[in-house]
Amino acid sequence: YDRSELPNNCTVIRGEVEGLAASFYEDLQQGSLAPEYDCATGQPFPSPYNDADLAGELQNRHIYYESTRGCPFNCSYCLSSVERGVTWKEIETVKQELALILKHRPKIIKFIDRTFNAKAERALEIWRFLVEQPGQTLFHFEMAPDLFTEEMFVFLADLPPGRFQFELGIQSTNPATLATVSRVMDLDKVNANMRRLAELDNIHLHADLILGLPEETEITFRKGVNDVFAMAPHYIQMGLLKVLPSTTISHTPGLVHCRQAPYQVISSAVMDQQTISQFYWLGECIEAFHNNRYFPSLFDYLRDQTEDICTFFEELLTICHEHNFFNLSTTQKFLTELLSKAVAERTDHQLCLDLIRYDWLRCDHRFLPESLSTDDLNTLRKSLSRSMDQNLSPLYDYRSRDEFFRKSIFARFSGQALKQLALADESKEGIVCFLPQKSAAIHSFKKTVLLP
Fold first, then answer.
1. Which of 40, 52, 75, 266 is deepest in the core (most CB within 10 A)?
2. For strand 36-38 and strand 12-14, is the pairing parallel, antiparallel, or unpaired?
3. Cα separations (Å) of 424 from 270, 329, 352?
4. Angle value at C-alpha 66, between 62 and 72, nearest 5 degrees
5. What does the angle CA 169 – CA 171 – CA 172 come to, to the nearest 5 degrees?
6. CA-to-CA distance for 235 and 60, rounded, in angstroms?
7. What pTM was computed for the model?
8. Based on the number of CB atoms within 10 Å of its own CB, is 149 exposed (0-12), middle (13-18) or buried (19 or more)?
9. What is the mean predicted confidence (pLDDT) over 350-361?
10. pLDDT digits over 383-423, tens only?
């Protein structure tokens, strides 16, 4: 590293912090830190938490846990590639440390292992231990999407929703880019495994793409966004490449980047600054409209239609800029209004609006915004309460009938929408009842039923 690029009075620690000698802490206490300290190598890395921390300052906070250190891969953009090898903490030690943490019922434990499933059997043993523990802690793991085994899928199929979330590093679907940055990955397995995980619908899936990697052109990056969208993750992150000092990628010809943290890329040999800027704002648009639970039915439909999702979001982005979207509060109502404008000129706009309307009502709203308004929901409810039978099993009987109509919401949908939503087999319009009960899936939407 170059000390001239560091802030004044900066102290550099070389190696793993557990190997610091007592002299460092003495200097720290006295306020007289030296410019550099070297750590002893090969030190164990025990959990830093104790009962007092977990019961006090760390209550209701994310708890970060490290069961391995290092990475089995050698990606040129990552600091883990500077030092080779992985240190694996003893599995019994992992269980003991996790048991201490879980005693305090944290909301989230985030494993910071760079590739948690690098050893499948080890990952499975930790998973089995975690799900046997009481409580509803959510566990976050960074996973390689091509390293899932059949045994893993069998285990995950029975996992209750809301217990695991996976951050899946895809980074690029361009083979030339992956080869250039030494990213070893089987793209066919990535595609198959991602789709299979999405079909389980019990694990929140976060997929990463990196913008600005070498050999990544405008065409290949657009293809990558479309490829990842087709895999149906819940969250698509398009982060700017950070060209970290001392990494191999920092010596790549033609790569222009900030010299100060966070070292973000500005341009590459094959992607100019304007193109990277355009993709950055496209990523912000995807972040706002896709990476939430508001519009899954619409995006499922676009996925079924093999939509060019880059073009779709570029058109939506234009509307966002026209309405100063990125400087205003991004409420669901505002998002819905702009998305309704974006589909207004499509030949299938009525179907798209029906799908947006369906998801709005599943999100526990009891009214429709102006951009989605068709029927008067209260008028429809009153009409149904007068005309429907006194008993309609399993929805209600004569004793629970009044409560059913008071707590449920009713809306009319086209036959095309009902088929897309798998609520009907024939193209005939109908009325959907939105029940007060929530579904047991990754998104706890209201349950729905098509009225006879």
1. 75
2. parallel
3. 49, 37, 17
4. 130
5. 135
6. 24
7. 0.92
8. middle
9. 97
10. 999 999 999 999 999 999 999 999 999 999 999 999 999 99
